[in-house]
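Quick note —
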Amino acid sequence: MPENQPPESDPFADLYGRLPDPRTGARPSGDAAPGTDTAPPSRRAARAARQTQEGSTAPEPSMDAAPPARYDAARRADSSSASASRPSGAGAQAAPRPTAAPTSSADRRPGAARPAADQRPTGHQRPVSAPQRPAAAPRPAADQRPATDQRPAAAAPGPERARTEAPVREPALVGAGAATASSASSPAASGSLEDLFTGQTTTHVIGETAPRAPRGRRRLGGWIAFAVVVLLFGGIAGGGVALWNTYGDRIQAFLGNGEPLDYEAGLATGEARVTIVSGDTGQSVSPKMFEAGVTKASNSLYKYMVDNAVGFTFQPGVYKLQQQMTSAAVLDALRNPANRLDYSVQLREGLTLKQSLELISEQLSIPRADLDAAVADPSRYGVTASTLEGWIFPATYDFDEGVTATDVISRMVQRTVQSLDSAGVPVEDRERILTIASIIEREARSSEDFYKVSRVIENRLQPDNVETHGLLQMDSTAQYGADELDAGSSSSSENALTSDNPYNTYKYPGLPVGPIANAGDRAIDAAMNPVDGTWYYFTTVNLETGETVFSTTYDDQLKAVEQFRAWCRENPDGGC
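Predicted structure written out below.
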């Protein structure tokens, strides 16, 4: 016996010897047909002796526990030499093999050799009366057992009858067929080596890929992942835009690649007029140059003067300049007396009559007393009001040499009438529209706010207004009545709010007795065409940007006022 021959007690030795080679699919040598015992004669004799000794204690076989047909056929092949009616030789090995249980002693023919009891995968032989399964082999699956109607009767006359009555049914072994049969009647195989050899699973199941999630769930998961990615990149992009809007100029200045604040030399074209008044400096003149289209940015001229340590004294007057000039060219033009227009005057929107007369006197070199006398009687110019406040139209005027104060005032009043007629204002409503337009001019911060402020005024003037009880409550009117309109603060003093004068709209309902400043074309149009809205209040919450909050209820107005106060605390020098 070879040294590596399996011991007789190994229950799987015979099975391993009969399995085909997994690499080539060839059966072991000497295994002419499935189920044939290929063990040496000495080993078969030893097994037969052991089975004879153990026969008395083995339990009777059960039809439910019948061994698979292939193993049963191997048992009959071993006993074929002792059967009188069974052919011998190779033909006996190739004959069909029944799947029925082993026959009892009543099935044997006289003189025939006793058949082997049980050729199971263990390789052990036991007496016919006591077949036993290997201890480690699990009970075959239900669909692998022979059906009840396929089992032969217990008292079958012999092997020949068993072969004719019981059809051959091969057991489900390792392979694709076994996987199909077991999956219909048993849970999924665990994939262990033991399940592979018992036929409860296959190599296909062991290597099978995990099942995919339902299509609907995969699609939902994809959309969720896509939404997360979109939100992530959207947040990054939004944060980058906000960061750039806030610190873009500083970043460009730090990197040295920001857009130049000055136009390039040689681009100057057209004509522009800029008025300089007494007390103007580079910081106050710089925005005027930008608004007239002379410089590229509101701080171009001032920054140039600071960076180059330029000292300059600005002389009052109206100067004729060009658009798209460099800062250096602007200073050179202001030094040249030829660019100063001695008989021109420029008045901006929102000036009072007093402020306008001062500019006219300064720019046209007309004595102030002459101008005061020219405005003393408004009826000379067709105005029925007691004063010409609001009737001096803001614009740029050119006069001939030797012009008188009366000529100047007459021309400015006529320009106001022209604007009123263009806006479609009836003659009898001129004073009323100019009053509303003057309040809009002093209160509004942007072109859009002009028409909203006009709506607030109209809503407050309605007879059924119970929100404010008909009080206009405009700070500009209260400040004008107390002579504090240009006191340097946007908030009204206690004196202005309590002063007893016909301009105090905190004390008297309705409009004040007349205009409070010069109104331009836009303010007059807004007074005639207020936008739709339900607002009763408005508050400028940022004096630097002009942001204004419009409210319908007093509670919302209080919130806006608190917002303005918070801005003032953060900007103590902001003009609050």
